[in-house]
Write a structure and sequence with these properties.
alpha+beta; 2 domains; 7 strands; 7 helices; two-stranded antiparallel sheet; Helix Hairpins; five-stranded mixed sheet; Heat Shock Protein 90
């Protein structure tokens, strides 16, 4: 090939990459818009119902709980999209961290479970923190972490559990030792195929069963959670048996104070 032919071939390759990138960006933005519009629409509808003087008090209490639930979803989505935006700009996630500090992981788990409890209640689910096991595993120990980032990672696991768990089931937040110190979220719902486990942490990937249960989605929650654990020198472990799945954030012993 002549030099001109080589340059033309390279130019054609770059054009195809640009077209593919634009198509991917358009699809991503469409997913973002859909994900944000759903909770916003639900909040708007609930507020309109609250303004109706004929709506009984007990119904208004239910509507307020729904507003809180949808607002939690909205804040959660915005935080994920903000982190994703930073990554899309080719920045290292680590540069956006606050200074790591020792955090009481039991309190963090309880606070986040309370945030997602209304949403779980709407799905006929219950979130429970295994306080006894947390006390046994951690005692007075704390984990050195960037609190806001780890809270987002754990929120992503909880959000997935609430989204994909079956109604009438319990979502359990527990602690353990797995070559480090673990915080785990266990739920019972859609099965995860063995050949899909490694792909779960790829940006934009969603399993077939997950797509069938909840059609819209961006597939960035586990990707971001994995990146967050990487900057903490930790990892995410997945254990699946039938319809029961456990996702664990595992911190190295060096992070324990």
């Amino acid at each position: 090939m002549t030099e001109i032919e080589i340059l033309n071939a390279e130019l054609e390759r770059l054009k195809k990459e640009l077209q593919a990138s634009r198509a991917e960006s358009r699809q991503y933005l469409q997913n973002v818009a859909h994900q944000l519009s759903a909770p916003l629409g639900a909040i708007k509808w609930s507020i309109e119902a609250l303004r109706d003087p004929d709506v009984p008090l007990h119904r208004k209490n239910t509507l307020l709980s729904s507003i809180y639930s949808q607002a939690t979803i909205l804040v959660h989505l915005i935080k994920n999209f903000s982190l994703m935006s930073n990554l899309e700009q080719d920045h290292e996630l680590g540069q956006f961290r606050e200074k790591p500090e020792p955090i009481d992981v039991t309190s963090l788990a309880i606070n986040l479970s309370n945030d997602f409890q209304p949403q779980a209640h709407e799905n006929d689910q219950r979130i429970r923190v295994d306080n006894a096991l947390f006390k046994q595993v951690y005692g007075s120990r704390r984990i050195l972490m960037v609190k806001n980032l780890v809270a987002q990672a754990l929120s992503n696991l909880l959000e997935n559990a609430v989204k994909y768990a079956d109604g009438g089931t319990e979502i359990l937040i527990t602690a353990g030792r797995q070559n480090g110190f673990a915080v785990s979220v266990r739920s019972e719902g859609i099965p995860i195929r063995e050949d899909e486990i490694e792909k779960l942490f790829e940006r934009g990937y969603r399993g077939r069963a997950a797509q069938q249960r909840v059609a819209p989605g961006t597939g960035i929650g586990l990707y971001l959670a994995n990146r967050i654990m990487e900057i903490h020198k930790g990892r995410i472990a997945v254990d699946t048996k039938g319809r029961t799945s456990t996702f664990s954030l595992i911190f190295p012993i060096s992070n324990i104070t």
